[in-house]
Design goal:
Layout: H1 2-6, H2 10-27, H3 40-47, H4 57-60, H5 78-90, H6 98-103, H7 107-119, H8 137-143, H9 155-158, H10 177-188, H11 199-204, H12 209-235
The chain binds heme C (HEC) (2 copies).
One heme C (HEC) binds near residues 54, 56, 73, 97 and 105.
Length: about 240
């Protein structure tokens, strides 16, 4: 077990990430234009389904912008979102709230609602903050990683400012800090599938608790600056 993570050296990480990036770039071309507001996916998001799935908007916000501890969905890749719904339904991504909701959706409905959220726009991420030094832990790990430990910079896969890349590397900027930390701990505990090529599980296993806290706070804080303006209009009328 341990050996397999330690053998993931810098070149092997980069080679695998590069391969995935190429796939991501090739497949991201299709979701640029937003789906119609009255699509099947939009109806699930705002009204739920007759067989018991609640409206996603109740927790994920009227425009998928996330509320409180509930994550953003808007603008995240469709393939990624659909895979998460399948993992919740199948129990490989363990979450008591999302499991029954995902199970209430048919595979077709999961695709529809994933396409809907992928097509919604997301505010531009704030630029990365320059790390003041290794003690500036969150910014340092996010933008530089810790190569002596084989830990790549998060930005290498999640893009500048944690804005996400293609459909396989989800955005991190603006997700609630507690949500981000919980995901990293879920990989360490085997409560979330390893994901494409096992990349993220390998990364998470290299993080210590203070790293997790610092990098989660860093990405949660990044979007706060840029999200304020574009989000204000969308959230105004929401109770
Ligand atoms: C009662 C609140 C609630 C409702 C309603 C809800 N969700 Fe969630 N959702 C959550 C929580 C909590 C999480 C975080 C789960 C975790 O920590 O793994 C989540 C996570 C997700 C994720 C994973 C996001 C990511 O970045 O990996 C997806 C996808 C998702 N929800 C889709 C949906 C869809 C589609 C619906 C509507 C059919 C929906 N949710 C309805 C609470 C809710
Ligand atoms: C080598 C590429 C790679 C690197 C480096 C990387 N990630 Fe990831 N990350 C991924 C992939 C791929 C996924 C999607 C996993 C899946 O589909 O289940 C992901 C998903 C995530 C998620 C889940 C997001 C959500 O919406 O639930 C979090 C949190 C995350 N990464 C945090 C980080 C942090 C923090 C770092 C830096 C310490 C980092 N990642 C570095 C590839 C990477």
């Amino acid at each position: 077990m341990k050996a397999s993570h330690e053998t993931m050296t810098r070149p092997s990480f980069l080679a695998r990430a590069t391969a995935l990036l190429l796939v991501a770039a090739a497949s991201s071309a299709g979701w640029a234009s937003p789906p119609p507001a009255d699509s099947a996916g939009a109806r699930i998001a705002t009204a739920g389904t007759p067989n018991g799935a609640p409206a996603c908007a109740g927790c994920h916000g009227a425009r998928g912008e996330g509320t409180g501890a509930f994550p953003h969905l808007a603008g995240t890749g469709a393939a990624y979102l659909r895979e998460q719904l399948e993992a919740f339904a199948g129990g490989t991504r363990k979450n008591e709230i999302m499991a029954p909701i995902a199970r209430a959706l048919s595979p077709e409905q999961r695709t529809q609602v994933a396409d809907h959220y992928a097509g919604l726009s997301r505010p531009a991420a704030a630029p990365d903050r320059e790390a003041r030094g290794p003690a500036d832990l969150g910014a340092w790990i996010a933008t530089r990683g810790r190569w002596d430990d084989g830990l790549p910079a998060c930005a290498q896969c999640h893009g500048p400012g944690g804005s996400g890349v293609g459909t396989s590397f989800p955005p991190l900027a603006g997700q609630p800090a507690a949500y981000l930390a919980q995901q990293l701990k879920a990989w360490q505990a085997g409560a979330r599938p390893a994901g494409p090529l096992g990349l993220m599980e390998a990364v998470a296993r290299k993080l210590k608790d203070p790293d997790i806290q610092a990098v989660s706070d860093y990405y949660a804080g990044l979007a706060a600056a840029s999200a304020a303006a574009p989000m204000a209009a969308g959230t105004k009328g929401t109770p």
